[in-house]
């Protein structure tokens, strides 16, 4: 399955034409699907080239494998939910980006700013660029700009820049601190989606657990800010406000507005929570079989047999979900097929993104003749393999 995703992503996103080899090797979608039409799920981003109704990759795959389901990558959805901001924060973000671009506009300005930072014993000597396509860069850029705010103000004043007035505004600085904190929390959520759990790709249950937890945190943070004026969950902002008690800036309305807006965006991108309807898959021994409305009577009988089997219960407590249902499939193939089909699809494109990042690192100007097509160089799979190299 990982091989399928790798090849689909490579050929769709590749920008270099391959006149004959490209058309012969994989523009035929069925060639990208293992064993003809046995694919049960495909995880991609939401780009039109992937999800197009008539000629998108998903449409072409489903023509060959009609039962294949599509999953919108959790990483991509989280990034889209966090991308748009409330008007107050959008304005601060725009000013922050203009300031960063101004400081790094030329090599001379960069060197002068670095010298200023060294003279003032700052921990860092440069600000970081913000790139919208790099989802985690927003927090890094904002955090560094907030950290060097005093040096930035001094430099802008000497340069007589119009941007200096913003860094004299306490509300602007407080909002910048909040943005560095909230996007740090969003980055932590995004990073938690990556990687594996128990050497296996994270299941949809694990992902929705994290999403539900973050939504609840947003509600909690909003109540604490709105009712109790508590900001300790936002480290930089809390530290800033504690140092300026006499001139405490009130940005409560800005924070509450953004938290409400962020919760709304998460509801839009994660509208359906399958954990209740599919609870019988995750823990068949804690559900009321009669309440499993999405199962036929025959499958309910099979589920009763499974729940009543103490040997299977022991295996359930010991093995992973996939291993458990694969074991069940020997005796109860129909209900096990439904469970495995739900658990098998990838929830993120992390394995592909990790592969691309590794290839980008390996294929430097000193080794630019390396072949990256998986068919011709199967060794590239090493970079995303779960087992360590020998």
Short description:
By secondary structure, the chain is mainly alpha-helical. It has helices spanning 2-13, 21-25, 48-51, 57-64, 74-83, 87-103, 107-119, 137-147, 149-158, 170-193, 204-228, 235-243, 252-269, 279-282, 297-308, 310-318, 321-328, 333-343, 350-362, and strands at residues 41-44, 69-72, 196-197, 200-201. The chain has 19 helices and 4 strands.
Task: Explain what you see.
- The radius of gyration is 26 Å and the shape is elongated.
- It has a domain at about 80-270.
- The protein has 19 helices and four strands.
- The chain has about 400 residues and is mainly α.
- The protein has a two-stranded parallel sheet.
- It has helices at about 1-15, 20-25, 50, 55-65, 75-85, 85-105, 105-120, 135-145, 150-160, 170-195, 205-230, 235-245, 250-270, 280, 295-310, 310-320, 320-330, 335-345, 350-360, and strands spanning about 40-45, 70, 195, 200.
- Strand 3 and strand 4 (about 200) form a beta hairpin.
- Mean pLDDT is about 80; it is low at about 1-30.
SSE pattern: HHEHHEHHHHHHEEHHHHHHHHH
Unreliable stretches (pLDDT < 50, length at least 5) are 1-30
Strand content range: under 5%
* End-to-end separation: 23 Å
Q: Please tell me how large the radius of gyration is.
A: 26 Å
Strand order of the largest sheet: 1-2
Report the biggest beta sheet as strand number plus sense, adding barrel if it closes.
2 strands, parallel
Number of strands: 4
Name the structural class: mainly alpha
| Helix proportion range | 55-70%
- Compute the average pLDDT: 80
Helix tally? 19
| Large-scale geometry | elongated
